[in-house]
Amino acid sequence: ITTLRDPITRASSLYWAEHVGWFDGILRQPEKCSTYREWVNAWRDNSQWKSEFVAANPGNLYVEIENYYVKALTGWQGNTTISAVDLEKAKKVLESFDLVFLSD
Q: Which candidate among 18, 38, 81, 93 keeps its CA 20 to 30 Å from the CA of 44?
């Protein structure tokens, strides 16, 4: 059994909980909050920030906004671009579950 969230809802929730919540709620530094667009652009695959993060944290999906489920289901380590082959591997992994819940 596994549960999957809507990818857009998941990314939006991550922005509010981990980005805005960190700078505004924990650090009390709202001036450091990026707009949603700026945050997404910073975490897109192949951006400078994302490339540096992946190099320092291979396989870490903590802040992942592109192809999250494909990466999570295939054990992506950050050193390759996601392809149609990876998508098919992820689909096969999903097929191995007896039950897949979808939320949001």
A: 93
